[in-house]
Amino acid sequence: MSEQSIKITQQDILEFIKKKSSVASPCNVCGASDWVLQDLHGIATTDKSGQVQLENLAGYAVVTCQSCGNSRFFSMRTIVAKLSSSA
Ligand SMILES: [Zn+2]
Hints:
The chain is of the alpha+beta class.
């Protein structure tokens, strides 16, 4: 399976991260629980249908606390592998 054949959406990525308890837990800096998935620039592009085309599997999906800016990094390689195996 080539990287280009993987069809996932940005929403899939966010849902995957949200399912993990670490991101649902409060920010360790400020205590807020308002996490947002950052732009996947340099990692992937999103086409008109909302599907993500991966450019760099070694990159990271970044979720940032809206309250203080604290950020968490998730391996795209792991996310894609997990999403692919559960599809
Ligand atoms: Zn915070």
